[in-house]
Specification:
Blueprint (H helix, E strand, L loop, with lengths): L8 H13 L7 E3 L12 E4 L2 E4 L14 E4 L5 E5 L4 E11 L6 E7 L6 E6 L7 E5 L7 E8 L4 E11 L7 E5 L2 E9 L4 E7 L11 E7 L3 E8 L7 E6 L8
Antiparallel strand pairs: 1-11, 2-5, 3-4, 4-11, 5-10, 6-9, 6-11, 7-8, 7-10, 12-13, 13-16, 14-15, 14-17
Length: about 250
């Protein structure tokens, strides 16, 4: 009697658990190929992709590492499962003779089962373009899917997911009639608001006032303001980026 291809319940459960244990990537996440016909890194899933696009310099669309992913049929997908709240997702994309009416989507999910749209491309750029989006902080899965192909392919490369962190003031100083406040690491294009209050005690709540909003630039973010007229003032910074909510 042949028992080829059969497993007892305990063996099958062990295989599934081992696979799930390797199914999450630690933020921040970056992948730039290879994509097609290769084993995906931990947390990533590649499905239906064609052979990678080499690009003009052999490094795909972003000029780094391997080629670009090739979506050449409806249903082709790339997905990534990560371990914490995402600050942003960025990637390079290019359409290869894609007719208007085709649908290429970027989607997000909290559980990997219920998905909602983060962005829809109906006419991807003919030249490689870098773009970014702000997923919900509750998202733990992102995927790119060629939902409806009419003709032509889509290339994707240089996918980066940044980790969200609670912003905090690294320094506040007053010199030369100016006040300077800074946070050490503002994520690219996220919106940060410096707020002020005259006191931290109030009959109902602290009255925080908006001072100024700035866009993060992947590094030191600094506000330079005239010194306040009163001698005592309190400051804080908040991330007020409007992300795409989950349903």
């Amino acid at each position: 009697m042949c028992h080829c291809g059969t497993f007892g319940p305990g063996v099958l459960a062990g295989l599934l658990m081992a696979r799930l244990a390797m199914g999450q990537a630690a933020l921040p996440v970056f992948h730039s190929g290879p994509w097609g016909f290769t084993t995906a890194p931990d947390g990533w899933t590649f499905s239906g992709l064609g052979p990678d696009y080499a690009g003009p310099d052999g490094h795909g669309l972003d000029g780094v590492d391997g080629g670009a992913a090739k979506f050449d049929d409806s249903g082709d997908t790339i997905s990534v499962h990560f371990d914490g709240p995402p600050a942003s997702v960025a990637y390079w994309i290019r359409g290869y003779t894609v007719l208007s009416g085709a649908v290429f989507r970027v989607e997000q999910s909290a559980d990997g089962s219920d998905w909602n749209t983060l962005h829809t491309w109906t006419n991807p750029p003919a030249d490689a373009a870098w773009t970014s989006h702000f997923p919900s902080l509750e998202a733990r899965h992102l995927r790119w899917i060629y939902a409806e192909k009419i003709t032509g392919n889509v290339g994707l490369d240089g996918v980066a997911v940044r980790a969200w962190t609670e912003p905090g003031l690294a320094a506040v100083s007053a010199t030369g009639g100016l006040l300077r406040a800074a946070i050490p690491d503002g994520s690219l294009n996220r919106t940060y608001r410096l707020e002020q209050a005259d006191a931290l005690t109030h009959p109902t709540a602290v009255d925080w006032q908006n001072v100024e909003e700035k866009q993060g630039a992947d590094g030191l973010l600094e506000w330079t303001l005239p010194l306040p007229t009163n001698r005592l003032r309190f400051y804080r910074v908040r991330d007020v980026t409007v992300g795409m909510p989950l349903p």
